[in-house]
Specification:
The protein is of the alpha+beta class. It has 2 domains: 38 residues, no CATH class; 109 residues, Pdz3 Domain, CATH 2.30.42. Helix content is 13%, strand content 33%. The protein has 3 helices and 11 strands. A hairpin with a 2-residue loop joins strand 10 and strand 11. The longest helix is centred in the middle third of the chain and has 10 residues. The N and C termini lie far apart (70 Å).
Length: 188
């Protein structure tokens, strides 16, 4: 590697084939100056810090301040615990069923070639609004608000009807046993 000097500019040539570089400020070719070749990256784990340079041994003014953990995400979809805010339902419906489905992973479950329901693989992982919802991976959703959800148009109709529904009721099978998860919908 060769460095070429030009007033206010340092050009670095990484190949000997690129030795004819000029200085735009003077219009003249520049004289190569030897540069220190970069060393290879170290192999293996870095050495342990010496006791003299460990953060505990530094004066408090030289230590990096400890950072507080980031705030935990907050869910604003509930009017009160367990009661879904109608405004959250409205926003979801306005965004569309396809948008809501983007956070849901389900698989069709059939028994004896007959549709049984949708097996939940994941439901908005990491979203604080779904953290306390009692629908788990492995649950098989069979009905929503009393209606079947076998065909896509059924699911879309149910989703759109939530704007006026008093509750969101999900019937499912958990380990073969029927379970009902119910959320009242309240607010404007």
């Amino acid at each position: 590697m060769i460095r070429r000097r030009c007033p206010g500019v340092t050009l670095v040539v990484l190949s000997s084939a690129l030795t004819v570089l000029g200085c735009a400020a003077t219009g003249k070719a520049t004289t190569p100056t030897p540069a220190v070749e970069p060393t290879a990256a170290p192999v293996g784990p870095p050495p342990p810090p010496s006791p003299a340079s460990s953060p505990a041994s530094l004066p408090s003014s030289a230590r990096e301040p400890e950072r507080a953990p980031p705030p935990r995400p907050v869910c604003h979809a509930f009017a009160t615990p367990g009661v879904v805010a109608r405004s959250a339902i409205r926003r979801a419906v306005e965004a569309g069923f396809a948008r809501w489905l983007s956070g849901v992973h389900v698989e069709a479950r059939r028994e004896k070639r007959r549709f049984r329901g949708w097996a939940v693989v994941s439901l908005y992982p990491g979203d604080p609004c779904y953290a306390d919802v009692d629908i788990r991976p492995g649950d098989v959703v069979t009905r929503v608000n009393g209606l079947g959800i076998e065909r896509p148009e059924q699911a879309v109709d149910i989703f759109n009807s939530l704007q006026r529904a008093p509750n969101l009721t999900v019937d499912l099978l958990r380990a073969g046993r029927p379970v009902t998860v119910r959320f009242p919908i309240a607010g404007d």
